[in-house]
Design brief:
alpha+beta, 11 helices, 49% helix, 19% strand, rod-shaped
Length: 376
């Protein structure tokens, strides 16, 4: 078979292979870069007829550069940020969140600290990722949390400090301290150790937390102000206050014994508060009765002495009459309540024997209406 060159190889003309036609382009072809550059140069030549290096071209280039340089001064401040504008490195103003403008670099620059956000520093504990729980868990840091109390006991304290940048101290915050978080953490731990070292363990574990938090907050703020840090401490929160883990069981037993002691003391005080007033009341009653008896006896004695004096005065005036009257009054008082039988020894009494049952000779009393009714 003769070989014929038909311009496409042994399988025919065109880009074909032995099994048919060759690969065909799919979709639109991408634009040619050289073609785009050529078109851009043509348009620039139309705008600048004299070429790039003509007076008009250089002026336009300079204007474009200046425009881009001026536009580079726009910046946006986020909601938690404040814009600190520096002019040749000096703080000149502070701008609020939103779109703002400063003179382009290198005249002015801007710093964007998170001045409106409340930050949290944890002391004595740290958060670590926990894949088993698909979250984060708290791990104790003994070298930060174990502290010595004023009565030479050891207590485990975990606490957090909430802080933010002072609105009028943002310049101090940026230029006076290099590591704000590290500074706040170190000062907070030092302040807590100082306050714990001046306190007893019992109030720390029971009811003195609010007082300790307030004192620690004041001490941290005072120290940071002396540094000129521009930081405001908003709150100190004690998360955990316990004895060390090695002695916590024994400490709980001691606490239970103290609770029982306080309960017994309270019961004793309650009983004392109940019995003592009653005893005071009885003693006051006895004293009042004695005073009444005293006043009564004295009054009766004074009355009898006054009566005797009056009788004596009458006796001096008429002794016989007074003596007879006193005798009769005395006999009336002595014999007034006794059963009496008077025997004058006259003729009607001749049949009286020497021994007489005098009570039987006394006239019998007639029963009253109630007695007679009862006898019937």
């Amino acid at each position: 078979m003769p070989w014929k060159n038909q311009g496409g190889g042994p399988w025919g003309s065109g880009p074909k292979g032995p099994w048919g036609s060759g690969p065909q382009p799919v979709g639109p072809r991408p634009p040619d870069l050289e073609d785009l550059l050529r078109r851009g140069q043509d348009r620039l030549q139309q705008i600048m007829p004299g070429g790039y290096f003509s007076g008009i071209g250089i002026t336009l280039i300079i204007l474009l550069i200046v425009a881009f340089w001026l536009l580079s001064g726009f910046f946006r401040v986020q909601s938690e940020e404040l814009g600190v504008v520096l002019r040749f490195g000096k703080h000149v103003r502070t701008v609020q969140p939103g779109l703002n403008y400063h003179l382009p670099y290198p005249i002015e620059t801007v710093l964007l600290p998170k001045a409106l956000r409340v930050n949290t520093i944890s002391v004595g504990m740290t958060l670590i990722d926990d894949p088993a729980r698909r979250g984060r868990s708290i791990r104790d840091v003994p070298e930060e949390s174990l502290m010595l109390t004023g009565d030479e006991n050891i207590v485990d304290v975990d606490f957090t400090v909430l802080w933010r940048i002072k609105p009028d101290g943002i310049g101090e915050f940026l230029f006076n301290i290099q590591n704000p978080e590290g500074t706040v953490k170190a000062v907070s731990e030092s302040a807590m150790r100082e306050v714990i070292g001046r306190s007893q363990i019992q109030p720390i574990l029971t009811g003195a937390r609010n007082t300790i938090e307030q004192r620690v907050q004041e001490l941290i703020q005072k120290t940071l102000d002396s540094y000129g840090a521009g930081i405001l401490i908003t709150q100190v929160q004690m998360q955990k206050v316990d004895p060390p883990a090695q002695v916590i069981d024994a400490f709980r037993d001691v606490q239970a014994a103290r609770a029982n002691l306080e309960q017994l003391q309270n019961e004793a005080h309650t009983y004392a508060n109940q019995v003592v007033p009653q005893a005071h009341g009885r003693a006051a009653k006895i004293l009042q009765d004695a005073e009444g008896y005293k006043e009564q006896a004295v009054a009766e004695a004074k009355g009898q002495s006054a009566r005797f004096l009056k009788v004596y005065e009458e006796y001096k005036k008429a002794p016989d009459v007074t003596r007879e009257r006193i005798y009769l009054e005395t006999m009336e008082r002595v014999l007034g309540g006794a059963d009496k039988l008077v025997y004058d020894g006259g003729p009607s009494g001749q049949g009286v024997v020497p021994y007489l049952p005098l009570p039987e000779l006394a006239p019998k009393r007639t029963p009253g209406p109630q007695s007679s009714g009862a006898s019937r």
